[in-house]
């Protein structure tokens, strides 16, 4: 049934209010971060990294606490974590690639693939297949250990029988790390490539991900140190999590020593890159125009065929879990080792998912679960209810810049580059916007000082900031709302919103409340200058300022690699200065603050104080 235009408009306004609360650095975005910090305090947690994907795009990244507890080094967004058992999905993805190439089959006898007999001594006539290794029904246990293949190879002379359960292969689920270390060995033997190199070349590099299995090649300064809680001792660092292989690689035997890289749990990756890998699985094996596995392979990995515990069920290195978020069935995997706890879960149909990683918590699984539920509640569940709970914004009665506590950025950076679009007609409204009487960038002093520090840090690299908009009077936001409601004014559609209908702009791009009106938000880009600091040109970001559409999303897969790199360069510089990006717009940043949101201001921007 079609909704009336009036009802559609009312729903759009609700959506706009929700997104204003969720994304702008003023209200509910701060609310969820306050909740996450509260959970960290409740569960005594060292550090936490979270990423949220919604509508098939990364819409939120958060890093809290410590990367290095002893040195008090804060955790940063792109720090690398060992992710433990989520790593199994990388091994299974590699297997599916080889299956698609016809180089092996999921129903092949594991012994034929690995080079020694793989038979449960209690059931010698029952083949153990590659599929059984992948779905944990092989009857292979972690027995005495699982760090090498000697424990299960009859030719190695040990107690290989101890690595098998007393039940038939294929009978039921029992989690097996040893089975996945065997999978890594099979990948080596079939592909002819060392396991870590295969995964890097065929999964990491095509998707543009950083990290991998071999810690020796990674930047040690980016590793999030891992801590295990011990009663009476507190948090103890688990250095073994990142132990380099060093000279051991000189004696590496390909097709035998893959467990050295821990196919079962050895991937090191940042939370945002893990989210991009998750998006590949969420999109049936393809992301950002790069296909990693075929849709049929992605479906096989995600289709749960083996009961785990009466609730969760397992596919091929991915499982379905109806209890992580009560009443919601999500697909993914968890990881835990050395004190870290990780999870990657998604809904492939509704196109959302979460990555959660902590490098140490007394709360263990309970903390990881609580964080996932908080993210789901905030970003996904019952959005219509959230606007009613948000407090009405307060508009200050300040009438001058001084009364509002706003400063002109050029008082701090006299030569900052700027082109204040709303003071003229070259903007999406197509006319000067109410409240912009002069092309000035005003900000609250803390935001202005932070922005000045960012600009100063960039200049030695021959980069500079270029500002489009800063403080925005509340009357300007009202002007935007009147413009979007005028269905006949489509003069700027071709330039600013070619692929959207005007009412769709209320769905996350234009809202009745803007964080800009609080004085802590700025729209800007980067310029690259010559060695003398002159001849500055804007970097290619893929769209112009105030382009409304998915291409403007900071992590849009439709942007080119160079454009994404430029956006990341801007994001890294701004995040280092204490700003947070609004993920729907690559140019939009707000200053992080633990303080409650301040009032809105409606002082016109002029040449006067």
Automatic annotation (TrEMBL):
Show which residues constitute the signal peptide: 1-28
Q: Which Gene3D superfamilies match?
A: 3.30.1380.10, DD-peptidase/beta-lactamase superfamily
List, alphabetically, the Pfam families matched: Beta-lactamase, Peptidase_M15
Q: What reaction does this enzyme carry out catalytically?
A: D-alanyl-D-alanine + H2O = 2 D-alanine
Its cofactor is:
Zn(2+)
Top-rank taxon: Bacteria
| Active site (catalytic residues) | 585
UniProt-annotated site: Transition state stabilizer, residues: 472
Per the annotation, how and in what number is the cofactor bound?
A: Binds 1 zinc ion per subunit.
Every Beta-lactamase-related domain range: 33-374
- Where, by residue number, does Zn(2+) bind? 516, 523, 588
Keywords assigned by UniProt, alphabetized: Cell wall biogenesis/degradation, Dipeptidase, Hydrolase, Metal-binding, Metalloprotease, Protease, Signal, Zinc
EC number(s) on file: 3.4.13.22
Q: Does the keyword DNA damage apply?
A: no
Listed InterPro entries: A_A_dipeptidase, Beta-lactam-related, Beta-lactam/transpept-like, Zn_M74/Hedgehog-like
GO MF annotation list: hydrolase activity
Check the record and name the CDD domains matching this protein. Answer: D-Ala-D-Ala_dipeptidase_VanX (cd14817)
Looking at its record, which EC class is this enzyme?
hydrolase
As for family, the record states: Belongs to the peptidase M15D family.
Please give the function described in this protein's UniProt entry: Catalyzes hydrolysis of the D-alanyl-D-alanine dipeptide.
What protein am I looking at?
Answer: D-alanyl-D-alanine dipeptidase
């Amino acid at each position: 049934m079609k909704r009336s235009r009036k009802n559609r408009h009312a729903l759009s306004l609700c959506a706009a209010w929700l997104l204003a609360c969720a994304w702008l650095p003023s209200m509910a975005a701060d609310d969820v971060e306050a909740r996450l910090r509260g959970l960290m305090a409740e569960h005594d947690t060292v550090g936490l990294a979270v990423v949220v994907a919604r509508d098939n795009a990364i819409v939120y990244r958060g890093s809290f606490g410590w990367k290095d507890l002893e040195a008090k080094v804060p955790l940063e967004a792109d720090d690398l974590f060992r992710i433990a058992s989520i790593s199994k999905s990388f091994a299974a993805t590699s297997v599916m690639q080889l299956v698609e190439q016809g180089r092996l089959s999921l129903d092949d006898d594991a012994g034929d693939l690995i080079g020694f007999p793989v038979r449960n001594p209690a059931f010698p006539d029952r083949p153990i297949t590659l599929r059984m290794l992948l779905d944990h029904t092989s009857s292979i246990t972690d027995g005495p250990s699982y760090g090498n293949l000697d424990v299960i190879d009859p030719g190695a002379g040990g107690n290989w029988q101890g690595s098998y359960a007393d039940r038939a292969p294929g009978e039921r689920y029992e989690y097996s790390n040893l089975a996945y270390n065997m999978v890594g060995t099979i990948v080596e033997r079939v592909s002819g490539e060392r396991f870590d190199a295969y995964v890097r070349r065929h999964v990491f590099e095509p998707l543009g991900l950083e990290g991998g299995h071999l810690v020796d090649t990674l930047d040690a300064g980016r590793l999030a140190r891992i801590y295990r809680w011990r009663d009476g001792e507190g948090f103890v660092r688990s250095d073994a999590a990142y132990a380099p292989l060093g000279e051991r690689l000189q004696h590496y035997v390909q097709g035998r020593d893959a467990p050295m890289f821990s196919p079962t749990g050895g991937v090191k990756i940042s939370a945002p890159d893990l989210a991009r890998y998750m998006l590949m699985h969420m999109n049936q094996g393809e992301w950002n125009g790069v296909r990693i596995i075929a849709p049929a392979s992605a479906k096989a990995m995600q289709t749960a065929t083996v009961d785990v515990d009466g609730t969760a069920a397992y596919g091929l290195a991915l499982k379905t879990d109806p209890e992580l978020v009560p009443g919601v069935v999500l697909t993914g995997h968890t990881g835990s080792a050395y004190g870290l706890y990780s999870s990657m879960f998604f809904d492939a149909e509704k196109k959302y998912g979460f990555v959660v990683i902590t490098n140490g918590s007394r709360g263990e699984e309970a903390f990881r679960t609580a964080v996932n539920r908080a993210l789901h509640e905030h970003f996904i569940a019952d959005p219509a209810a959230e606007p009613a709970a948000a407090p009405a914004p307060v508009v200050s009665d300040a009438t001058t810049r001084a009364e509002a506590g706003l400063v002109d950025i050029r008082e701090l950076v006299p030569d900052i580059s700027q082109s204040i679009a709303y003071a003229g007609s070259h903007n999406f409204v197509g006319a000067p916007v109410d409240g912009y009487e002069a092309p000035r960038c005003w900000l609250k002093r803390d935001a202005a000082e932070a922005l000045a520090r960012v600009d100063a840090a960039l200049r030695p690299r021959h980069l500079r900031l270029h500002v489009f908009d800063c403080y925005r009077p509340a009357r300007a936001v009202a002007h935007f709302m009147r413009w979007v409601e005028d269905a006949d004014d489509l003069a700027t559609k071709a330039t600013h919103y070619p692929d959207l209908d005007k009412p769709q702009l209320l769905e996350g791009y234009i809202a009745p409340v803007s964080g800009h009106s609080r004085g802590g938000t700025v729209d800007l880009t980067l310029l690259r200058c010559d060695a003398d600091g002159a001849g500055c040109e804007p970097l290619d970001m893929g769209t112009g300022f105030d382009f409304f559409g998915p291409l403007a999303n900071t992590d849009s897969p439709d942007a080119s690699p160079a454009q994404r790199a430029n956006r990341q360069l801007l994001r890294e510089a701004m995040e280092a200065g204490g700003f947070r990006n609004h993920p729907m717009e690559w140019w939009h940043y707000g200053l992080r603050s633990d303080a409650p949101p301040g009032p809105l201001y409606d002082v016109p921007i002029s040449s006067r104080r």
